[in-house]
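Example: Sulfurtransferase TusA family protein.
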Amino acid sequence: MNIKQVLDAKGLACPMPIVKAKKAINQLESGDVLEIHATDKGAKNDLAAWSKSGGHEVLEFKEENNVLKFWIKKG
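Written out as structure tokens, the predicted fold is:
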């Protein structure tokens, strides 16, 4: 996986993880991967829905030590 940027959204409540993810992914090229770390439990559904609506793809999701980790490929 070619990760171009890591976004630390830990400690941020909705909608800030989405706002920060949108800003970060806009700086990437199509096909680049954005890794996001969040602690807001709502981010799981929010980031999945946001990715789909924006034409991006969630490549992987996992939870480690109460941190939600997402790998999103820019569409």
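The first helix runs from residue 16 to 26.
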